[in-house]
Amino acid sequence: MVTGTEPIEIFSVIRERRSVRNYTDQEVQDEALRAIIAAGIQAPTALGLQPWRFVVARDRDLMRRASDYCKPNLVEKIGEESRPGTEEFLAALKNPEFNIFYNAPVLVLVLGAREVVSSVLDCTLCAENMMLAAWALGIGSCWIGSATLIQQNPEILAALKVPDDHQVVAPLIFGYPAPLLPKPERREPRITWIP
Ligand SMILES: Cc1cc2nc3c(=O)[nH]c(=O)nc-3n(C[C@H](O)[C@H](O)[C@H](O)COP(=O)(O)O)c2cc1C
Fold it and tell me: What are the φ and ψ backbone dihedral angles of 7, each rounded to 5 degrees?
């Protein structure tokens, strides 16, 4: 409840959060990750079902393997779509050094129960809470949608202990930001006001 006694910083956190793709080597402590997940699970869910689970992975070899698996598949996928703005990402994907997780120290998978129809929406709200909470703690994040392709690889799913009855909704990386790029500009919102 808003009591009026505490400064409301949520608007600055929302405004300033940006996707971080360049990290320092500093580890993110378990305590911070627990706080981030605790913020995540405060998100609303349809029927209050809370259909999520979390995997916290710090295994850089495994992340590299997952990245190496996803990259050629993404090249194929993006090549097919060939939308403007994808050229730079496509070039990065073709670079053997490029890691889709940007060498972040930790990957958190937000998994949604397959049997719950709203789990993608619920887990997405959870993921945004997590990214905002991380920013408030000085921790950067990025949603790595490209990594959902690991769902086609049973070996990687097993290594990440993803249960069969859950899908990967939000692969999120976290870490302490190295120098940041400016936040991408937002377009003016189109609002229809009905008087
Ligand atoms: C569903 C989703 C998937 C995304 N996938 C990727 C990704 O695979 N790689 C990446 O670098 N950024 C990814 N992003 C981050 C977006 O590129 C980023 O949010 C957008 O450019 C706006 O920038 P900002 O988050 O700094 O405001 C993803 C974001 C969302 C919401």
Answer: -65, 140
pTM, rounded to two decimals: 0.95
Is 145 near ligand 1, meaning CB less than 6 Å away?
Answer: yes
Reference 16, options 134, 123, 105; nearest CA is: 134
Ligand 1: which of 143, 185, 186 to mutate, most ligand atoms within 8 Å of CB?
143
Average pLDDT value for residue range 19-46? 98
Does any domain span residue 7? no
Note whether residue 127 is domain-resident.
yes
Token pair 């500009």 in the structure block, residue: 185
On whether residue 70 sits in a domain, the answer given is: no
CATH of residue 168's domain is 3.40.109.10
Question: Is residue 26 a part of any domain in this protein?
Answer: yes
- Whether 120 is in the pocket of ligand 1, judged by its Cβ within 6 Å, is no
The whole domain housing 105 covers 19-63+101-175
Can you give the pLDDT at residue 2?
46
Residue pLDDT, tens place only, 36-45:
999 999 999 9
**Is the distance from the beta carbon of residue 144 to the nearest atom of ligand 1 less than 6 Å?**
yes
* 188 CB-near residues (< 8 Å, 6+ apart): none
Is the confidence at residue 187, as pLDDT, over 70?
A: yes
